[in-house]
Amino acid sequence: MGSQCMGFAVLLLSLLLVSPASLSYAKDTLELDGYIEDGETLISADEIFELGFFSPGSSKYRYIGIWYYNFSTDTVLWVANREAPVPDTSGRLAVGGDGNLVVLNGSRSVLWSSNVSLSSNASTVQLLDDGNLVLNNTGRVVWQSFENPTDTYLPGMKVGLDLTTNVNQYITSWKSSDDPAPGNYSMGVDPNRSTQIFVWEGTKPRWRSGRWNGQVFIGIQNMVPTYIYGFKLSNFELEKKMYFYYTAFNSSHRYVLTWEGIEKHLTWKDDTKFWSTFWAQPITDCELYNKCGNYGSCTDENTPICSCLKGYVPAVEAEWSSGNWTSGCVRRTPLQCERNSSGGAGSVQADGFWKMEGVKLPDLSDWASGVVDEDGCQAACLGNCSCQAYAYVTGIGCLVWGVDLVDIHIFSSGGNDMYLRLAASEIQTKKKKSFVILIVVLAVVLSLGCIYLFFKCKKRIRGTARNAFYRRRGDRGIVSVDPNRDRDRAEGGVSFRISDESKDQKCQELPLFSFDSIVASTSNFALANLLGEGGFGPVYKGTLPGGQEVALKRLSRSSGQGENEFKNEVILMAKLQHRNLVRLLGCCIHGEERILVYEYMPNRSLNAFLFDPRKKGLLGWKTRYDIIEGIARGLLYLHRDSRLRIIHRDLKASNILLDKDMNPKISDFGMARIFGSDDNETNTKRVVGTYGYMSPEYAMQGVFSVKSDVYSFGVLLLEIVSGRKNSSFAHQDSSLNLLGSAWKLWNEDNVMEFVDPAIRDSCSPRQASRCVNVGLLCVQDRPNDRPTMSSVVIMLEGGTAAYPQPKQPTFSAERSPSDTESSTFGLRVASASNSITLLTAR
Ligand SMILES: *[C@@H]1O[C@H](CO)[C@@H](O)[C@H](O)[C@H]1NC(C)=O
Ligand SMILES: *[C@@H]1O[C@H](CO)[C@@H](O)[C@H](O)[C@H]1NC(C)=O
Ligand SMILES: *[C@@H]1O[C@H](CO)[C@@H](O)[C@H](O)[C@H]1NC(C)=O
Ligand SMILES: *[C@@H]1O[C@H](CO)[C@@H](O)[C@H](O)[C@H]1NC(C)=O
Ligand SMILES: *[C@@H]1O[C@H](CO)[C@@H](O)[C@H](O)[C@H]1NC(C)=O
Ligand SMILES: *[C@@H]1O[C@H](CO)[C@@H](O)[C@H](O)[C@H]1NC(C)=O
Ligand SMILES: *[C@@H]1O[C@H](CO)[C@@H](O)[C@H](O)[C@H]1NC(C)=O
Ligand SMILES: *[C@@H]1O[C@H](CO)[C@@H](O)[C@H](O)[C@H]1NC(C)=O
Ligand SMILES: *[C@@H]1O[C@H](CO)[C@@H](O)[C@H](O)[C@H]1NC(C)=O
Ligand SMILES: *[C@@H]1O[C@H](CO)[C@@H](O)[C@H](O)[C@H]1NC(C)=O
Ligand SMILES: *[C@@H]1O[C@H](CO)[C@@H](O)[C@H](O)[C@H]1NC(C)=O
Ligand SMILES: *[C@@H]1O[C@H](CO)[C@@H](O)[C@H](O)[C@H]1NC(C)=O
User: Fold this and answer.
1) Would you say 66 and 131 are in contact if contact means Cβ atoms under 8 Å apart?
2) Can you tell me whether residue 796 is helix, strand or coil?
3) Which atom of ligand 6 is nearest to the CA of 175?
4) Which of 126, 150, 561, 584 places its Cα 20 to 30 Å from the Cα of 790?
5) According to the UniProt entry, which residue ranges have a biased composition of type Polar residues (predicted)?
6) Residues 562, 669 contacting (CB under 8 angstroms)
7) Which distant-in-sequence residues (6+ apart) come within 8 Å of 343 by Cβ?
């Protein structure tokens, strides 16, 4: 009995010791008269969100906030007393005598109140598992934090515009990272009901998303219509409230309007334990609202970034040329329909339309109802003299502009077509010019054809290049529009060799570097500046006069092989821009010299780390995972999001360059092919690529498709995870080569054995398993079984619950093809074991 008593007393004692903490930590609800003090918190039922006092940044003031339970108070999602902090730790959060939620200071004065008028004080406050703090009063929700947001938009929120009362709700930024008081920026839906999201600075628009087309906001470049955004527009006609909402599935997502006025989409990565920015806007100058003024168009890649629309001239020339674009541009030649006096004469030509491509469509569009196609849209615009432009957008319909055209941004990829109304004479001059160009082009093509025939007699033709006479994006004018034009051009590739006679070819709108400046930048191609020897010639490091470091790829004079690739690369790279693609800064054509100027990548190539026993440890698991994701995004961009659909055809570790932060950049587009959007595979006589990365159908039959790149990506992924080269252990016994061992270990549920031993400790088993699963899906024999890059990106993001089961790869690509076409192929194979990649150093 004595010992029982003892035991009971100990139990009681320990309960007493533990209970104050455990009581305050277990609850998610406050009843009337209940409160928490500084240091205590409310925690939602499933321990997802936590509420309590915190001090932001270096501030010493105390605020009531909600944050993710698992993360520190760096992730504050909501703040109650934004403008009324408690100066010390004597504050309280309580359900006050009137039933409102209140923040009190040390002498129990009300600093902040939910401030709803209540007839009864029978209130409870509860922190829910979606992060919402709700105030119940007599069984009714009378107030909730989701309807009184601060700077964060969480899944489930419905912040928007009440169409009955016109009351708009906003997200407002903090003043600074130390001060949650309302700052200069706010975000919300367009009060003009255009289904756009705006960020305002004060009352001035700072950024807009473009209209919602049912899947994406058309003004956000490269927005991917997947689960990740999971965005939906409310059924506003029924609900009488216009807002966007989203679901986050299993991973945490939040949209934050930072105190610097940037809208950021952050996602939490379960395995790596950090928040990564999915996208953020506005970042570039052109993303700022109406950067170039009315009738100006903004292109980030141009210098200067602003130009007037076709047929428009600067409103104030002096201002414009000095870089002040605020006054914008004005029409040069009045429209015919505006010149009412001269009417009647039959000879007068009607106004026409000029097509612009890749446009972030201007703000303040009107929606023309009842129009079902592009022709109808054109007619609608022609019928109204004040109509300046029109665009027909899938998912939205016909948009017309009857007011000044504001906030036009020319995207480097994506965007919409817009038809700008111009006087006939404005278009005519261009037509004449185009005609001259056409003649010149024809002459060039003819002479090239002759040269081609001449060479054909002497030598087999080895290359395929695209005869693409593209002009600058966003300014390609035609009056009547054939939507198939682009596609036809991309498909109707012409095979020919560029002779030395075609030196007059331009650098595709890219900056042209003088040969002298190149010589100076590399100290006359000094050996000390040699970065490596590529397949088509040496690569040098150069330093431009401004101090910018660049990499220079110099086609060797002897390699006639490289000429096609040079042109191919210039054409492609000039049009591509993505943070996971290496950037071409310009080129140099001088006599026989062909030099490409790239951004310099201080960390060289993935190859140099991954397969070097002394350096592979520097690539930790998180870095490798980021690299895999980066490559996947870059490839997705090539396959789907860039305006040209592109197959890289030579994806491999040595073609992945690393910038100073170890971000991967896909390089070497010499082999890439532009793809029509309809054909999904193409046959080629010449098999190029690198042994070990080539898909079976490509190596054996020369058939390539985007799925061939997916295969190469799969091999690359498995190499990154395992730190082993695919070719380095090509054994007859399939269980010993890379794909075979991946397959074996994955089936044995022993993926960690596959992971590079150098980094096994830092590796997340879940991510590794996810990676190997995706890798095996990508290297399946049948192209149709392989996922597309968009599925790959989603799977890597962990955005899907179920991963398909891969089929066993049979490694047929490892047999060397024995057909007659294998001579060039053989050459590539021979050099593949060395680093043949350009821009790579040993
Ligand atoms: C919080 O962290 C714990 C331990 O790391 C984990 O088990 C739990 O799933 C996490 N909860 C959430 C909501 O992420
Ligand atoms: C709540 O209201 C009742 C009746 O109006 C009142 O008697 C009671 O004191 C109130 N409670 C508090 C905590 O003020
Ligand atoms: C609480 O706030 C009131 C009113 O603002 C103020 O008069 C009082 O000094 C504050 N008390 C403390 C302890 O800060
Ligand atoms: C509560 O709301 C009323 C108007 O509804 C306003 O006058 C008052 O200042 C508010 N009080 C606080 C503490 O916000
Ligand atoms: C608050 O009200 C909602 C809706 O009526 C209800 O689902 C919830 O359980 C209530 N919470 C509390 C703590 O009473
Ligand atoms: C907010 O506006 C004020 C006044 O215009 C300015 O001084 C301040 O720097 C702005 N803050 C930010 C973060 O831009
Ligand atoms: C709404 O549209 C009118 C013209 O139609 C424009 O002047 C105004 O600036 C727009 N408001 C916003 C907030 O965009
Ligand atoms: C640019 O021009 C506008 C309009 O003339 C003028 O108000 C503004 O001050 C100018 N801005 C600068 C930076 O010169
Ligand atoms: C066209 O006619 C209208 C009214 O008839 C007049 O106000 C306008 O100035 C005329 N425009 C031109 C360019 O003559
Ligand atoms: C990558 O390059 C940067 C800049 O040159 C350097 O600071 C960093 O240490 C390099 N990273 C690795 C892993 O070598
Ligand atoms: C190409 O598309 C056709 C039909 O659209 C399909 O039968 C074929 O399997 C596809 N090929 C590839 C490689 O996806
Ligand atoms: C979320 O995770 C649970 C358990 O892991 C799973 O059953 C569910 O299908 C997942 N939901 C989604 C949408 O991925």
Assistant:
1) yes
2) helix
3) 13
4) 584
5) 808-826
6) no
7) none
Place of tokens 């004065």: 109
DSSP per-residue codes, 201-244? ETTEEEEE---B-SSSBTTSTT---STTT-EEE--HHHHSEEEE
Residue to substitute in 81, 92, 105 for testing ligand 3 pocket (most ligand atoms within 8 angstroms of CB): 105
The DSSP letter of residue 86 is B
Residue 647 corresponds to which tokens in the numbers above?
């197959």
Ligand 6 contacts CB of residue 184 (under 6 A): yes
Q: Is 610 helix (H, G, I), strand (E, B) or coil?
A: helix
Distance 340 CA to ligand 9 centre (A): 6
Q: Which residues pair with 355 in a beta bridge?
A: 419
The number of beta carbons lying within 10 Å of the beta carbon of residue 188 is: 21
Strand partners, 208: 198
- Which of 325, 331, 319, 288 has its CA nearest to residue 306? 325
CB 105 near ligand 3, within 6 Å: yes
Could you say which ligand is closest to the alpha carbon of residue 95? 2
Q: For helices 789-796 and 765-778, what crossing angle results, to 10°?
A: 170
pLDDT at 266 over 70: yes
Whole-angstrom distance, CA of residue 746 vs CA of residue 770 = 10
Between 1.10.579.10, 3.40.50.2000, 2.90.10.10, 3.40.50.1240, what CATH number should domain 20-147 receive?
2.90.10.10
Q: What is the SS3 assignment for 346?
A: coil
pLDDT band at 464 (very low <50, low <70, confident <90, very high): very low
What is the per-residue pLDDT for 350? Answer: 77
Q: How confident is the model at residue 556 (pLDDT cuts 50, 70, 90)?
A: low
Q: Please, what is the average pLDDT of the chain? A: 78
Choose between 654 and 710: higher pLDDT: 710
Atom number, ligand 9, closest to the C-alpha of residue 341:
14
Query: For residues 671 and 38, what is the distance between their CA atoms, to the nearest angstrom?
Result: 63
- Average pLDDT on 437-466 reads 54
Instruction: Evaluate: CB of 680 within 6 angstroms of ligand 11.
Output: yes
607-841 CATH pick, 1.10.510.10, 3.30.70.3340, 3.10.180.10, 3.40.50.1820: 1.10.510.10
pLDDT bucket at 820, cuts 50 / 70 / 90: very low
Residue whose pair of structure tokens reads 């004597």 in the numeric block: 90
| Dist. CA 727 → ligand 4 center (Å) | 72
251 Cβ closer than 6 Å to some ligand 1 atom: no
Q: How far is CA 175 from CA 151, 189, 260, 410, 564, in A?
A: 10, 21, 8, 32, 55
Asked whether residue 807 carries a pLDDT value surpassing 80, the answer given is: yes
Q: Angle formed by the axes of helices 621-636 and 765-778, to 10°? A: 30
User: Which ligand 10 atom minimizes the distance to the CA of 618?
Assistant: 13
Ligand nearest to the CA of 113: 4
Cα-to-centroid distance, 113 and ligand 3 (Å): 15
| Residues whose CB falls within 8 Å of the CB of residue 619, separated by 6 or more in sequence, listed in order | 609, 610, 627, 662, 759
Q: Which amino acid belongs to residue 20?
A: P
Query: Where in the sequence numbering do the catalytic residues fall?
Result: 650
Specify the range with the lowest mean pLDDT, choosing from 159-173, 217-231, 328-342, 716-730: 217-231
Joined together, the tokens standing for residue 127 give 């922190």
Give the residue whose CA is nearest to atom 9 of ligand 2.
Answer: 97
| Tokens of residue 117, six digits | 């008028």
Question: Which range, 121-125, 370-374, 537-541, has the best average confidence (pLDDT)?
Answer: 121-125
CATH superfamily for domain 475-600? Phosphorylase Kinase; domain 1 (3.30.200.20)
- Residue-wise pLDDT for 513-524, tens only, equals 888 888 888 888
Q: Hey, how many other C-beta atoms are within 10 angstroms of the C-beta on 157?
A: 23
659, two tokens: 């910038």
When pLDDT is averaged across residues 264-289 and rounded to a whole number, the result is 78
Q: How far apart are alpha carbons 473 and 374 in whole angstroms?
A: 21
On whether the pTM is more than 0.70, the answer is no
* Nearest ligand (C-alpha, residue 29): 5
